[in-house]
Amino acid sequence: MLNEFIEKILVHERDRKGSIQTTQEVEIYFNFVGRFVPPAFGEAELTPEELEEIRKREERKDRLHQNYLKRKASGAQKRYEDKIKKRKKAEIEAKKAAIRAEDIAKGVFVPCQQFTAERADERSTNSMNITYTQNGDYLIPNIIIRKTKPHRTLRQTSQGVSGNAPPDTVQ
User: Fold this and answer.
1) Residues paired with residue 139 on neighbouring β-strands, in sequence order
2) Alpha-carbon distance 127 to 77, whole Å?
3) pLDDT in tens, 100-117
């Protein structure tokens, strides 16, 4: 029901991108009224202490942003991000290795180096005798697909359904 009263909502860009404490303007246009700003949403009177705190916070944000722009222009930011990315990747790989070692100890995971063709044959079912070829760390199953005879195709004729019969032949 509320949607019937609202014509459109405009959400403007944030005053400062990448900042946690920032403001953003939202305009709500009602049908037959236009933009409506409630009187309680006017400018609030701030104390001198609050104004000083806001000014200091904005100065700090400006200083940090200018430093970031300098680092980005000199290439130092890219080097820093690459260093952090390498460190995080190493941490993730170490966590993966620890989990893998734990799984190997429990018998849940078997690395490809330990999974030999003989063991693969032991695991294969009696109905299918699958052999494997090692390609790097992977074991690729040697699957042979036998050629089969084509299935009969059914054709609709005026006399009914016939299998593999030419259209002019009557059965």
Assistant:
1) 134
2) 61
3) 888 888 877 777 766 665
Q: What 3-state DSSP class applies to 28?
A: strand
Low-confidence ranges of the chain (pLDDT < 70): 1, 18, 41-43, 113-129, 147-171
Residue 54 to residues 3, 48, 66, 93, 161, Cα–Cα distance (Å):
37, 10, 18, 43, 86
| Best CA proximity match to 154, nearest among 143, 145, 162 | 162
- Report yes or no on whether pTM surpasses 0.90: no
Alpha-carbon gap, residue 115 to 87, rounded angstroms: 32
Tokens 């933009």 -> residue: 35
Residues in the chain: 171
Q: How far is 111 from 106, CA to CA, in rounded Å?
A: 13
Which residues touch 112 (CB under 8 Å, ≥6 apart)? Answer: 134, 137, 138, 139
Q: Is 144 exposed, middle or buried (0-12, 13-18, 19+ CB in 10 A)?
A: exposed
Exposure string of 72-108, with b = 16+ CB inside 10 Å and e = fewer, is: eeeeeeeeeeeeeeeeeeeeeeeeeeeeeeeeeeeee
Smallest CA-to-CA distance from 104 within 95, 114, 118, 116 is with 114
